[in-house]
Amino acid sequence: MTGDGPTGRDTLRDAFRVWDVNRANQEAVLVSSDDQHYAVPLPDEHADLLEALAESGGTLDATLVPSDGPTSWAVDAVDGVDRTG
What we know:
Layout: E1 2-4, E2 10-22, E3 27-31, E4 37-41, H1 47-56, E5 59-66, E6 73-82
Antiparallel strand pairs: 1-2, 2-3, 2-5, 3-4, 5-6
């Protein structure tokens, strides 16, 4: 689930469920396959998708990278989407 990213930093790749999307705080909470919760800044380009997945129970195959911002992790890439719950 983790590995070295292209910059040598740790990455986290998994199929995440979207537990919550908070547009007011610009944050989403993703849940990994081993039930770990990750708060990430809400990426503008994926906000509608994450909100739809939170409602449908679908999953997001994504790569997270360490963040220097208000959360520990940030979405680096969306690698796939499963819209079925």
